[in-house]
Every structure is written in structure tokens, then in C-alpha cells.
Amino acid sequence: MSAAKARAAAKVTTAAAKRTAVAGKAPTTGVPLSNPDKVLYPAAGFTKTDVRNYYLGIAPVLLPHMEGRPLTLKRYPNGVDGPFFYEKRCPSHKPDWVKTTDVWSERNQENINYCVANDAATLAWLANLACLEIHPLLFKARKPDRPTSMVFDFDPGEPATLLDCLRLGLRMREVLSHFGLECFPKSSGGKGLHLWVPLNTPVTFEQTKQFSRAVAQLFEKQNPGQVTSNMRKDLRHGKIFVDWSQNDEHKTTVCAYSLRARSQPTVSTPLTWTEVEAAVKAEDPARLVFTADQVLARVKKKGDLFEPVLKLKQRLPKFTG
Amino acid sequence: MSSVTPARRLVSQNCRQIVTALHHCDLKSPATDGAQQGQVRQMAEETKSSSRPIWTGAISFGLVSIPVRLYTAVREKRLHFRTLHDQDKIPLKQKMVCPAHPNKEVHSEHTVKGFEIEKDRFVVVRQEELEAAAPKGGKAIEIQDFVELGQIDPLYFDKPYHVVPKPEGAKPYKLLLEVMEQTQRVAIAKVVMWGKENLAALRPLEGGMVLETMHFGDEVVAAKSVPGRQVMGKVDSRELKMATSLVDSLTTTFDPGKYHDDYREKVLKLIHDKAEGHEVVTRPTSEEEAPRGGQDLVAALEASLAAAKDSARGNGRVTEGRAAARNARHAHAHPGTHKRRRSA
Asked: pLDDT tens string for chain B (344 positions)?
């Protein structure tokens, strides 16, 4: 990202940020950034400023996918090569304009106060925390019983690759379409593929979990030797693990357009099925791995390919009725 | 009434106790298959990890401060059973319920502490108020006096802990230990453990120190206050002589290894035999792992797919998914209701 673009993306005026912070409203002009030159992706020379600018640039398409959702932060205070931690509880030192929401945790027998990001300022603040990856919960805070999507995470066990994931993703699309469900692919930003089945209708985690597990088990049965629905790492060798278990009120999946903490600043990028088919045909899965700058350019051209995920209303077939 | 976390802690304690007990009785491990052995190994590791210090702080002795750690010196071996539902053998959960609304569970955030000053009349005390009253000192075993051990009746002792110096405390620890050994005195100290002030005796034992927590004087029931324990009258000298010779003949050196909890060992043997005889009930796998009816749903999905393929061959086009799905309706039982809560 060029310096000029960076400046355009975020005009940092600390004083203005402070003024608005006092008012309890999200600042519109800028949020302080400490250690702006700190390199968080050493292999790419991608700095904290770059992270912040990416998130501010992608905000228009990213925010609708996070809006109103409790977020788990994956923070890398010393960059992608250093230690990281997951943060569920919104830090107590948060500015008062950062929104939060309480989610009851049965396990801890108490509420967990999660961050919510509904505006670009919060994204800038998260970047300042070196929160590289943003993992929202699958529900919106005001309706905690209702998952808005069902998700499948295709995770290849070595030596299986992204190409294998793409092939199986196409097959899964067929299976789901048989059940009257349309699904949308995004790259994980690494070797995996995520399939999102928008629901946006009254449904429970109980139902999405049962249905996704059954589909994953059926898929395993249909593709023995290639697919496993079992989480155990030692059963994964050379197979694609179709992870259905993220369809849980406590589990998170990386957000569309979130950065990933890999050696390059890759992004979990929404794809079209045409792109997936072409990549499989050309046996060139690498073309579906995009970095921050590429994604900003892509979005300018193609808009938000994941937009249907926000709106499309679908119902699970009534096997569970 | 227990919440989830203490219950869980209790369970792991139980496992630990049973495994230690099994080792102790020298019974063969009941584990036969790999999974069970894995469990036993894991439990054995827990036993090891239980030798972690349970408290860290310092002995404060005049101007000297001796950093030390406390380790459990006595581990109770009581057998614990979990309470299962007799029909499906699922461990039961305890719930707090208000008698006024018996169908609604009350969660811990909706509970307050009440001190019953007389029947049905309470003084409500908030957590902050209790915290404000909590002892401030913390993290120190503060020596108050030195006394002769024989002056303390065993009645006063509660729980013993081994006291181990941190490396930087080794020298003063050794000094204090030697002083106590040579003068035949033990230290009486106050120590704050887990937010509660305790009286304790610090005494030498086998080349190291032991801290015995003690009851405060007002916790001990005065012998005099218990009626009927003092019998009047004289003892016959001949009977006394006979009784003395009986006692003499039974006198030996104290060997704690000689006495066993026969009841516990019998019950353990029963458990062991039942496990060997495969009289083991397995808790039905949790929702996460494989719900009942999960395979039914897979079969229903499969049948639906197959039907679609057949009719596609017949009609020359792919059948509409939902119609096929409808055919398979009712193939799967209704899932249980989902429990979760959120507060604003």
C-alpha cells in the first residue's frame, strides 16, 4: 500500500480522537496508533500501519459481516512470528466508544463481555491491539440462539492440498444444492476452504450442528480415503477434514476479509464458484490466495462476493422436524 | 448446591483418589482397552501434578522473611461416587431452584449471601463487604510466639502441610529449623490462606518443617461443657492391675501402615471386580461427539440423495432437493431443547 493511499485511508488526529472519545461516540477521523512502524509480517515487511490501513480500506465490505456480532480477537503483539493469544473478553482499557456485548457462558457460569465492531474506528483500534485475525461468533448479539449461517471448514491434512479442498468443495456444493441449499466459498487465506451456507431464518445451533455433522459424515462415506469428519489429527493424514463442529454457539470462524497470521498478509477471501472451477481445471490453487493489497483491488472491481451471505434466506430441510 | 466448576474439580479429585487407592491396594489396573488405559495414564499424571504447591508465601520471623511453599501433607482417600440417573446412567446435574418458581433455574449471578439471624429473617451481606473485612496481611506465616509442642493438645490440630523453602530462603529456613529442634519449641503463627485467617503451628519434622493449621481456642468445645463425661467414685486397685497388664501386653510401637480402612478396600475390590467383569456402564456420548439419531440423519440424507439420482435417471433431470428432503421427513427424532442464556 502506497504512503499516499495510507494517508488517505486514515488521517490520524489524536486530539480529535480524544475529543470524540469523551463524548462516548466512535471517532470519525482517527484513532491513535502506537508503534506505527512495527513490522508485524517480517517476511513481507508489512507494518502495523499497513494492517490498520488494510482494515480501514476494507471496512465498507468487512463491517456488514461483523456487525452486531461478539468477536474473538487473535492478537499478535510481536507479529506473526511471535506468540499470539485469543481474547474473548474485551480489554478493560478499551475506549468508551468501543461497543461490547455480554454473552452468557454456561461453562464459566458468567457473562463474557465481547467486543463488537460496527464502525471503522473500532477496526483501527483493533489494529492498534495487533489483532490480526478477527473471529466473529456465528450469531448476532441480540439473537444469541440463532446462527445466521451454517459453515464448513475444509482443512487439508498433509500431503493433501488446497487443490484437493477445492475439488471437494465443488462436490459439497452439489450435495448441498440437492438439499436446496446454496453455499458460498471463501479461501481460508492458507491451505483451506470455507463454505458458508446463509440461513437468516429461525434456526438453532442444535439444528445446524446436527445437519452439518450428518452432511460431513455422509460426505466422508461418499469420499472414503479423501474426507474425514473426525477431528483427531492422527486420522487426518492426506485427508480433508470437513469441520462441521464450528456450528456451535461458542465457536468462531475467521471472518470474511480478515487478515490471516501467515508469513504473507493473506486474507480470507470470498470467491466465486467460477473461480474455483477454473482453478481446479488449471490445477492452480495458488491463484485463489490473495494478500491484503490484492483483496482491496478485487473488492473495488467485484464488490462484496459474500453479500448474499448477509441476506439470502434459506431453511434447512426438515429432516429434524 | 454446586456450580459446574467445583463439581468438575471434585470429579478430578475423585479420579485421583481412586487411582491412588488402586495403586495402594496393589490391585491390577482394571483398564483393558487402549482408551481406558489412556484415561488411567492421564489420571496418574494428575496425581503427579497434585504435588504442586498449594500455597506460596513467606515465614515472617522477626525481621527475617523466609520465602516458602506449602505442599499437602495428608491426602484423604475417601471414596466418592457420582450420582447417575438410574435409567440412562447419565451423571445428574444439580440446579439451584427458588421454591417460589420451581420450574426456573436460578443462576449464580442472581444469588446473594444471607445470614439467618433468626428463622426466616436474614441480613444480606454483599461480596464487597466480605472482601473489605478479609484479612489484609496475606502471603505470610507470621510467627507470634514459641511454645513447647507438648503444651498443645492434638485436639487443636487441623491440617498439616509440608513447608519447603524457595532457594533464596534455604539458609534462614535451616536456621529456624535448627533453633526449634535445639530449643524443643514450636512456633505459633497466624497465616492467611484463601482469604481466611488461620492459627497454625510450625514445627520440625524429619529434617524439615511442617505447618499444622490449628483451631482457634473458641472453636474448641470445652470438655467440661459436655455433661456426663466425668464419672465419680473410686477404681478398684485389683481391676486396675489387671487392666494394666492387658494394656502392657498390647503395647507396641506405633506403625500407621498396620491399620487399614477395611470398608474402603472392600468397596474398591467390588468396583475392581465389576470393572473386570465388564459390568461397566458407559455414559452415552455427549451431544458433541455423536448424538443419538445422528446416524439416522446420515441415512436419511443418503436415501434422499440416492432417490434424487434414481429419479434423475428416470426423468433425465435433477430432482428438486426439497421434495426429496420432504420424503425423508420424520426420519430423525426431534433434538432436545437447547439450553443457553444471555443477559444484557
From this structure: 333 333 333 333 443 333 333 333 333 333 333 333 333 333 333 333 346 788 888 998 878 889 999 998 988 888 888 888 888 888 888 888 888 888 888 888 888 889 888 888 888 988 888 777 776 666 789 999 999 999 999 999 999 999 999 988 899 999 999 999 999 999 999 988 877 788 999 999 999 999 999 999 998 998 888 888 888 888 899 999 999 999 999 999 999 888 888 888 888 888 877 776 666 666 665 444 444 456 788 888 888 888 877 776 655 444 444 444 444 443 343 443 333 444 33
Q: Quick one: CA torsion of B69, B73, B77, B82, rounded to 10 degrees?
A: -20
Query: How would you label A279-317 residue by residue, b for 16+ Cβ within 10 Å and e otherwise?
Result: bbeeeebeebbbbbbebbebbeeeebbbebbeebebebb
Topology of the domain comprising A3-136: DNA primase, PRIM domain (3.90.920)
Taking an 8 Å cut-off on Cβ atoms, the answer to whether B338 and A318 are in contact is: no
CA distance B169 to A185: 61
Helix (H, G, I), strand (E, B) or coil at A199: coil
CATH code, residues A149-311:
3.30.70.3300
C-beta separation of A133 from A261 below 8 A = yes
Say if the Cβ atoms of A178 and B294 lie within 8 Å: no
Range 255-294 of A in CB contact (< 8 A) with B: none
Separation of alpha carbons A266 and A261, rounded Å? 8
What does the alpha-carbon distance between residue B174 and residue A151 come to, in Å, rounded to a whole number? 63
Kind plus residue range of the DSSP H or E element containing A18: helix A14-23
B282, B90 contact by CB (below 8 A): no
Tell me which residue in B295, B340, B343 faces A106 most closely, judged by beta carbons: B340
**C-beta atoms surrounding A218 within 10 Å:** 21
From chain B, the residues in CB contact with A104 under 8 A are 340-343
Please, are residues A217 and A205 in contact by the beta-carbon 8 Å criterion? Answer: no
- Give CATH 3.90.920.10 domain extents, chain A: 3-136
Helices (H) then strands (E): counts for chain A: 9, 14
Q: How far is CA B322 from CA A53, A149, A316, B325, in A?
A: 45, 19, 9, 5
Contact call for A104 and B343, based on CB within 8 A: yes
Nearest to B328 among A211, A249, A319 (CB): A319
CB contact A109 to B (< 8 Å): yes
Contacts of A240 (CB under 8 A, 6+ apart): A154, A155, A156, A157, A160, A164, A165, A168, A226, A227, A228
Pairing of strands B185-193, B208-214: unpaired
Cβ-based burial of A54 (10 A; exposed 0-12, middle 13-18, buried ≥19): buried
Q: Closest Cα to residue A197, out of A175, A218, A229?
A: A175
Instruction: Indicate the pTM of the whole model.
Output: 0.53
Cell numbers that stand for A244 in this block: 462441521
Cis peptide before A136 (omega within 30 of 0): no
